[in-house]
Amino acid sequence: MVTTSTPKKLAKVEHLKTDSNYLREPVASELLLDTNYFTEDAIQILKFHGSYQQDNRDNRVKGEEKDYQMMLRTRNPGGFIPPQLYLALDRLASDYGNETIRATTRQGFQMHGILKKNLKPAITAIVQNMGSTLGACGDLNRNVMAPPAPFKKKPEYRHALTYADRIADLLTPQSGAYYEVWLDGEKAISGEPAPEVKAALATDLNRTIFPGDPEPLYGTQYMPRKFKIAITVPGDNSIDIFSQDLGLVVITNAKGQLLGFNVYAGGGLGRTHNKEETFARIADPIGYVTKANIYDLVKAIVATQRDYGDRTNRRHARMKYLIHDWGVAKFKAKVEEYYGKKIQPLKQLPAFKYLDFLGWHEQGDGKLFLGISVVNGRIKDDGDFKLRTALREIVQTYKIPMRVTPHQNVLIYDIKPADRDKIDKILIANGVEPDPTKIDTLVRYSMACPALPTCGLAVTESERVAPSVNERFRALLDKLGLPDEQFVIRMTGCPNGCARPYMAEVGFVGSFPESYQVWLAGCPAQTRLAQVYTDRMHINDLETFFTPILEYFKRDRKPDEGFGDFCNRVGLASIREVCKH
Q1: Is 531 in contact with 520 (CB distance < 8 Å)?
Q2: Contact between residue 414 and residue 367 where contact means Cβ atoms under 8 Å apart
Q3: Per the omega criterion (within 30 degrees of 0), is the bond before 417 cis?
Q4: Which of 69, 123, 277, 494 has CA atoms 20 to 30 A from the CA of 193?
Q5: In terms of C-beta density within 10 A (0-12 exposed, 13-18 middle, 19 or more buried), how is residue 292 classed?
Q6: What are phi and psi of 469, to 5 degrees?
């Protein structure tokens, strides 16, 4: 670790990690206690195992104990969900959860409402059905994202999914604690990592690993904070690459053979209201590395953050702050020390576009895939809308896999053309629209985090009010003579930014009960940060607040100019002046 002449006081969680015996304690001991909650110390270590302890605020009774329950998150590189895993999650949602499954913005699933006593059997069932929750939360690499489209004749997409799996394996905790705690030592039912991944884990390149340590890459303290990686292909920004700690872009030759990767680093969206030293930041270009060197480069970047990231101030611990404080040149030089060679210049790329892959598509091998819109990621049955029932029937009947998308939707694939009409009928019979052109574009491109009642950080609503916000926006656009207008709306109940509102054309960030900070001037491709327009807009004032802004947009926009690009061009100061906000 970095040494200084005056040792700094480490954050409490750093001591908890060191004393945890590589993530075993106090979780293992507290699982044996007849209590309905974990202590604060255990909660911090439990995150590494893929779970957060929550309190359902809707069920709070003054003077009584909190309504403790666990949120459990799966780890699925590239969003891959084999059929038996999906059916297991569906059963667990009824047996232990709240009858819903929630697709996340990092291509996994979350389950809510699990009691402490049911946490072990739930995790055991997930692992026994080809899943995992290890590393879905905590101070280490999170789920590795990749475009979910299963194109068989677009080799760049296959490369991205392959390396999402391999880099996830490279950065998975190695100590064995997960299987000891949840499966009584029984190893997962999964394949061995690729030979080159095993070799990279065993190779001490310029102090990137700790030889002989149970955690060769992480050591006893793991990372200073969470670390997020995404891999994509040229032109495809379905994974919000500039919001990641580390972003990789596949580079191929004319034959589709993998040559290497463009590298971006230092993105991150979490921040804290009224703490100007915290901020959203987009990733910087770092350079290009060949295919043969990608694992060494990933290890070098992880080691740089591991050894020099801030372990004293949790709010300053993400890699984006290290790069901001050092500058890209110093950061790159330090990475090259660990890497052992110079990083090459970036390869030229086409402009990025946002893709969601909804609707029916050819895979390229004679089979089809279908992207299904899931409003705010919540798979549920609600009245005549029975998405959960429909997906269960489809997966049970056709035994087909699924991929969760970065936009909280799902793709089902390897579908025989003869089964297309049958699957459409199942969806329509359960109130689910398979044709994305019949879904309001505001709904199609919006996202919201869960927020209240379960997220302890939320200061106001998000998922539960987002549908009504979209409806109100559509009504307002119709009223103002903008019926065909579409833009990206994202909403979160707190400034942590889990639904990535800071990359949206319109971002709502919870700041007070029933009130939101409003961010404008992002772009549809999610390649530009939005900017703060106001710190507090009460949800009841939405129409009054946005009417003059949209009237200004309608009057002064350029041909084919979108709302986010308009706001960026004219500037927020101009909008405030014209709208008298």
Answers
A1: yes
A2: yes
A3: no
A4: 123
A5: exposed
A6: -65, -45
Whether the domain at 359-438 and the domain at 442-579 fall into the same CATH topology: no
Amino acid identity, position 179 = Y
Q: 87 to each of 396, 403, 429, 458, how far by Cα in Å? A: 8, 14, 20, 30
Name which of 408, 516, 387, 529 is nearest 462 in CA terms: 516
DSSP string, 341-397: SPPBPPPP-PPPB-----EEEE-SSS-EEEEE--GGGEE-EETTEEHHHHHHHHHHH
pLDDT tens digit string along 83-133? Answer: 999 999 999 999 999 999 999 999 999 999 999 999 999 999 999 999 999
Catalytic residues: 73, 142, 226, 228, 449, 455, 494, 498
Q: Considering only the top CATH level, what class is 359-438?
A: alpha beta
Domain residue spans in the chain?
Answer: 139-184+193-355, 359-438, 442-579
pLDDT tens digits along 275-303: 999 999 999 999 999 999 999 999 999 99
Fold classification of 139-184+193-355 is Sulfite Reductase Hemoprotein; domain 1 (3.30.413)
Q: What does the alpha-carbon distance between residue 160 and residue 248 come to, in Å, rounded to a whole number? A: 9
